[in-house]
Amino acid sequence: MGSMSIWHWAIVIVVVALLFGGRGKLSGIMGDAAKGIRAFKDGLKDDTDSKPKDGVGSLPRTESEKEEANR
User: Is 26 in contact with 19 (CB distance < 8 Å)?
Assistant: First the structure.
């Protein structure tokens, strides 16, 4: 139990090869994730800029709501 068997080393080598092998797959994945996060933040900024500030676009009030507002 104290030492690692051949199977433990084989698993470690496979994981390291998957993460760091072949044209920087890990850095490519992280770059794609960063682009996705940036696009998400830009989308949130666009949504806050396009919100109407004077309430335009809300549902019209019913007659009873208008009467209650005037009281």
Answer: yes
pLDDT, one tens digit per residue, over 30-49 is 888 899 999 999 888 876 65
The token pair at 40 is 């998400």
Q: In percent, how much of the chain has pLDDT > 70?
A: 72
- In the 8-state DSSP scheme, what is residue 50? T
pTM value is 0.37
The C-alpha angle 27, 30, 36, rounded to 5 degrees, equals 145
d(CA 30, CA 37): 11
Answer whether 20's CB lies under 8 Å from 26's CB.
yes
